[in-house]
Design brief:
By secondary structure, this protein is α/β, with parallel strands linked by helices. Helix content is about 35%, strand content about 15%. The chain has one domain: Vaccinia Virus protein VP39 (Rossmann fold, 3-Layer(aba) Sandwich). Helix 5 links the parallel strand 4 and strand 5. The relative contact order is 0.15. This is Class I SAM-dependent methyltransferase. One of its GO terms (molecular function) is methyltransferase activity. Keywords: Methyltransferase, Transferase.
Length: about 260
């Protein structure tokens, strides 16, 4: 994708790093399928606090691996998220930006919550792509890795939303033919996780930043840093101006034939 089009969770680096600092997070896990993800932007923060970043990516590229070898505080785990998230320990914060579908994200969040309970840590998770297009539509980077009962009818052409914007992924990628409905998309996974958490008497807050494909922040209301985090996120949370700007941005991108992929 052209660098002219903002698309990466790395665009949120300053906000995420501020939140990590408020939480005094030292053990951070990033789930990604994008080259490099947000790792480079987080490392300077971790260096200050003797922290560690674990990057879970099923196919890390050579450039990232070369960089990672020079970073003692960065660990690369070449695995799919659902095979690796549950093996982590004492994690203070999660950045979830992997396979953007309901099955994957809902299971990631369930494991995050279970690990937080086991390790006595508050939940703090940043979830990218809670906005259009993957908020209400599953994206399958490798469709055959999703159980058939959890996979919507999918194809290679994404219908025009908004206007005539069409997106294409990698050679194996597919998208749910229909947008919306139960158990479809990243935001739907987040909402169902929050609903289930309330039913289990877990007190979680959610902030929704409607820009650059959307960033969701899930955090424990009982965490010692919760009030500071809420204050930091308040100007961004469901900001109507950001939402209008994002809609306009997507329309402009859709009119540019150079735009051919989303991360």
């Amino acid at each position: 994708m052209s660098e002219a089009f903002l698309h990466s969770v790395a665009e949120y680096a300053s906000l995420i790093v501020d939140c990590l600092a408020m939480a005094r997070a030292r053990e951070v896990v990033e789930v990604t399928q994008a080259p490099g993800g947000i790792a480079r932007q987080i490392v300077p923060y971790l260096e200050q606090y003797d922290g560690r970043l674990t990057v879970i990516d099923p196919a890390p590229d050579a450039e990232f691996l070369h960089w990672q070898m020079l970073q003692p505080q960065v660990i690369s785990v070449a695995a799919h998220s659902l095979d690796a998230v549950g093996l982590q320990n004492d994690v203070d914060a999660w950045i979830l930006d992997g396979d953007h579908n309901y099955h994957t994200v809902s299971n990631e969040l369930r494991m995050v919550s279970s690990l937080a309970d086991r390790d006595g840590r508050p939940v703090l998770a940043f979830v990218h792509d809670v906005g259009w297009p993957w908020g209400r539509r599953d994206f399958y980077g490798q469709p055959d890795r999703i159980p058939s009962h959890a996979r919507h009818a999918a194809g290679r052409h994404l219908p025009a939303v908004p206007d005539e914007l069409c997106l294409w992924g990698g050679d194996q990628a597919a998208y749910a033919v229909q947008e919306g409905g139960p158990r479809n998309g990243v935001l739907s996974a987040v909402e169902d996780f929050l609903r289930d958490s309330r039913e289990m008497d877990l007190s979680l807050a959610y902030a929704h930043v409607p820009a650059i494909f959307g960033l969701g922040v899930i955090y424990d209301k009982a965490a010692p840093y919760a009030a500071a985090l809420a204050q930091r996120l308040a100007p961004w949370d469901r900001n109507p101006l950001l939402a209008r700007m994002e809609d306009n941005r997507l329309r402009q991108i859709g009119a540019d034939p150079r735009w051919s992929d989303v991360a």
